[in-house]
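A note from the maintainers: we've had questions about how concatenated examples are separated. There is no special marker in the raw files; a new sequence line simply starts the next protein. For clarity in this README we add a label.
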Amino acid sequence: MNSAPDTAAPAPLPLAGVRVIAMGQLIAGPFAGKTLGDVGADVIKIEPPEGGDPLRGWRLLKDGTSVWWQVSSRNKRSVALDLRQPEGQELARRLVSEADVLIENFRPGTLEGWGLGWEVLHALNPRLVMLRISGYGQTGPYRDLPGFGVIGEAMGGLRHLTAEPGRVPVRVGVSIGDTLAALHGVIGVLTALRHRDVNGGEGQVVDVALHEAVFNCMESLLPEYSAFGAVREPGGSALPGIAPSNAYQCTDGWVLVAGNGDSIYRRLMRAIGRDDLAAAPDLQSNAGRVARVAEIDAAIGAWTAARRVSDVLEALGAQRVPAGKVYTAKDIAEDPHYRAREMIVEQRTKHGWSVEVPGVVPKLCTTPGRIRSAAPDLGDDTAAVLRELGVDDATVAAWRAKGVAR
């Protein structure tokens, strides 16, 4: 198991030398910043002096801070500035003037109200790449509406599909809309940096709407409606139109089986003792199997219902049929494959206790990302970062007394 922060001789990181000013809160903006920080960017997180990012207080807390914070804010420096005050706005402009990237996920118009809009910042720093994540984007009739990830999931088409037929749509279980928007934002930032560095040195705005990031992942949803008027409906645990692919109950839990390739399907049927279904002429292609999917699912379900998950996985694994159990956090933490791939990393926090967190994704063979620093306490780096701007300690102390900084 790797331990973080890493004290070994560091390998070069792809984004070393790239400075990111991260103004976003909660999930989408911070996730984008974390992803860039994992591969070397110097991420300076600006938080309000009173309370900081609300994520610090979400879900389960240890020493008064969310353990989620240890994931979201690793590889970042915390600067506590009140962007509602003129001095805080001026400091933010000074930070941005020397930065490569600005990340924000406020409602459109918020930064403009603080004198931190694109026109101002672009004039100040033409090389700046500005990532703006919002519910509905920076343009369009819904621009000014408030939007969270769950709304983006609904408008993007995902929430309609996450249900058993005829039952209430359910959430995925994590803030997938925010995360998808963050990842699209990172792609946009890297693309814009590449353009800037090879085409004249000018930055640009990366405009990511939550619902568009979700919609971009909805596969054939729109083309099927456009071509056939077909509205895809909830399929529960199955994958409608592709068979067999479903969740099946065992004596001690559930197993996912994806037997939807033609040769995989035949191996699956032989593994469960249904040579008749393996050889049936009309089941040799996906179209035929979809027509008889209820019969096929029933056959698989009858076989799994008499067996333990581990026995099902062993039998199907021997026949090279993709199958897996439904993992809980405990399953993940105890899985040797996660450990072997360094996806479970022990991170020592600022307060001296350790917690296991997800490792770095994606994995690069020559310049792999790593956790270089633990998540900061609020305002940990305010004085140091302001010194880099030439602000003396007496001025910092005065701003702290006024509530501009912490």
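[label: protein 2]
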Amino acid sequence: MNSIQKDIAHLRVEYASKPFDESDLIKDPFEQFSVWLKEAIDANANEPNAMTLATVRDDGQPTARVVLLKEFNENGFVFFSNFESNKGIEIEKNPKVALVFCWLEMQRQVRIEGVARKISAKESDDYFHIRPHGSKIGAHASPQSKKIENRKTLEDRFSEFEKLFSEKPIVRPHHWGGYIVQPVSIEFWQGRQSRLHDRFLFSRNTDLSWTIDRLAP
């Protein structure tokens, strides 16, 4: 093994955060998430709305990437993407997905499992219109997940669409929009000393209420 491989085995952070006990837990998981997200923002966590999105390919191989949370409410967690990207194709075939938020500054994780579906065209339009100019052009220019010859190919496409939309409003491309992940479970994880972490799992019942269980770390 080289030196970095040896060093990895000895990398260790002793978590020393405050306890997260039953008395601290808010019984509505969305309210609990809201509190933790605000605390992450207030702590200047790096990209506090970044979340890992895991999907599953046809062959059963899980795939994951980081996307940005743009909205959440009692119905679920919203992000935006190219519908024709790998993740879009995978969601179309198997809408069961998982999300993970990791706030290292807070020594916290939130794990979500659920089902993804597209939001309405109007909701996607409303968000698209508030995106920065370059991001709007990029949504048209990038054939996301497809193989391209080189970066110049991408930059040329960007220039073509930038010229096209210099004379008319930028409309949302039909292949781009939002998804909402409707959770069936939400787990809150708080790092603690000696790896005796605090974990609480919210599981959704058929009547839309939640069952709460403490999990061993």
